Recover the amino acids of this structure.
């Protein structure tokens, strides 16, 4: 009798536990659905990390366990490793021609690979190092990289797992041009086990860049990309589309989202016969076009950093009377300012308002917290990064 009594209690406990679990899951799903149903958002700061370091620092990545943060000093070209408490754990310069170096300037922001290991993309390939800065693994391309175009803090190196990475790495066609070849793959799949590079992800058939009669320079094609839950999310810089791939099939996207910008200034392609492929000049107009600068994904949330671009009239107003190139670029960047928003499944953009004193959304951790940088308008004698939650605006 006693045994039967305890069996019934256990069964009841299981049933009650299952009901509570369903209620809990239901509440989470309802909360998630309510968040996605909002029309606009704001970020609520919940914590911050102060680091005793002063330099031209940009933020790169946070480890899966949340215990370490990577940054990059753009002046010294040092990869910086910090603890979550703000302690400086290392400064590593891996540029140049030494045996363990990436060659020249980095082509990507550094990324964590696994516990006690980070990696970075350079002209020599993908190189991984431990937390003491010692080379652990490397993979070099079997084709000459004729272009080493550094895009500040470009997020173009991502790991599918601890051994396989995807990277935007030009040069496979061997033509040595700053103009993107519409007939070749746009990403490299990098295997640390074998050291092999293989071309993947041809330009989608519906993309404006898939047109051999109108080619585009690399500044308009640099991808914004992220990997989450077995999918690749990628947008080419000056095209208002988001492509979603299954990582098991990178030959063609499984989904195409047309992003519903209110305004997005696109640059026209040029005839291949009208360009000098061996020379490439950058002028102020190149920074006045619409641009998709960053894609960050967590669960059903897709966050985009973008700039809409300047019309001809807006460009003239911003550049009028400015002869100093640095003053001109500064004014254009201020006029063509970055914005942040969520992309819905229908392509609608829902704006995200950032708190005062912050600059950019940098990365999302494994728990879904959003990390944002300080805006540097007020000079500090230390570095500062904030942790925030996404909230619906009522």
């Amino acid at each position: 009798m006693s045994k039967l009594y305890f069996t019934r209690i256990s069964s009841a406990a299981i049933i009650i536990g299952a009901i509570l679990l369903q209620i809990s899951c239901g509440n989470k799903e309802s909360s998630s659905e309510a968040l996605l149903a909002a029309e606009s958002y704001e970020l609520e700061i919940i914590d911050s990390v102060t680091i005793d370091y002063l330099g031209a620092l940009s933020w790169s990545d946070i480890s899966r366990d949340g215990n370490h943060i990577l940054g990059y000093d753009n002046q010294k070209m040092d990869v910086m490793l910090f603890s979550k408490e703000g302690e400086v754990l290392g400064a590593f310069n891996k540029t140049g021609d030494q045996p363990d170096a990436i060659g020249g300037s980095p082509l990507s922001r550094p990324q964590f690979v696994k516990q006690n290991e980070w990696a970075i993309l350079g002209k020599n390939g993908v190189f991984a190092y431990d937390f003491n800065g010692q080379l652990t693994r490397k993979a070099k391309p079997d084709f000459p990289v004729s272009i080493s175009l550094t895009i500040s803090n470009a997020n173009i190196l991502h790991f599918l797992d601890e051994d396989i990475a995807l990277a935007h790495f030009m040069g496979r066609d061997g033509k040595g041009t700053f103009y993107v070849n519409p007939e070749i793959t746009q990403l490299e799949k990098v295997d640390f086990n074998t050291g092999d590079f293989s071309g993947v992800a041809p330009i989608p058939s519906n993309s404006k860049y898939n047109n051999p009669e109108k080619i585009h320079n690399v500044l308009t094609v640099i991808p914004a990309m992220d990997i989450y839950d077995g999918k690749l999310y990628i947008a080419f810089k000056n095209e208002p589309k988001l492509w979603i791939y299954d990582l098991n099939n990178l030959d063609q996207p499984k989904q195409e989202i047309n992003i519903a910008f209110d305004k997005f200034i696109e640059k026209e392609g040029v005839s291949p016969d009208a360009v000098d492929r061996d020379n490439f000049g950058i002028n102020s107009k190149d920074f006045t076009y619409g641009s998709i600068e960053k894609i960050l994904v967590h669960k059903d949330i897709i966050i985009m950093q973008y700039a809409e671009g300047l019309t001809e009239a807006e460009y003239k107003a911003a550049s009028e009377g400015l002869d100093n190139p640095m003053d001109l670029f500064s004014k254009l960047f201020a006029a063509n300012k970055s914005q942040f928003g969520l992309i819905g499944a229908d392509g609608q953009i829902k704006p995200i308002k950032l708190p005062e004193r912050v600059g950019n959304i940098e990365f999302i951790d494994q728990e879904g917290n959003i990390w944002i940088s300080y805006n540097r308008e007020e000079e500090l004698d230390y570095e500062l990064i904030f942790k925030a939650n996404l909230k619906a605006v009522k």
User: Anything to note?
Assistant: Helices lie at 2-37, 312-319, 325-335. The first strand starts at residue 41 and ends at 51. Residues 134 and 195 are 18 Å apart (CA to CA). Residues 1-26 have pLDDT under 50 and may be disordered.
